[in-house]
Amino acid sequence: MQKEFNYKVQIKESHLDTFGHVNNAAYLTLLEEARWELITKNGYSLQKVHELKKGPVVLEVKMQFLKELKLREFINIQTHSVSFEGKIGKLSQTIYNQNNEKACQADFVFGFFDLATRKLIPATDLWLKAIGLK
Hints:
This protein is of the alpha+beta class. Helix content is 23%, strand content 41%. The protein has helices at residues 24-41, 46-52, 125-130, and strands at 4-10, 54-65, 74-85, 88-96, 102-114, 119-120.
């Protein structure tokens, strides 16, 4: 069963570029922060990654920037896992601005990575729970 996860954050000075809005690379940082909050909340923290020597790896990302995000604006990042088949998963994240307008759409392809063998592996039940698919 898919679960949607909401992560609210305020845009800070460190997120901005010379135009005074969020830098394109900062979007990736904000989206990653939301993904870590999701899996940590679901029992798969960085400590668990180190303990089990298994964790997520981003393979591909497609982003669309739709509305600018500005300093001190509160945003909401909605994250939901679309699927995980074999060794590959798909996840979608949408950033909404303080007016609840879609500001960014990002679609990720990711794998579940074994740190010991340095290879992608099939998802475990614990990992599927962490990403909201169990």
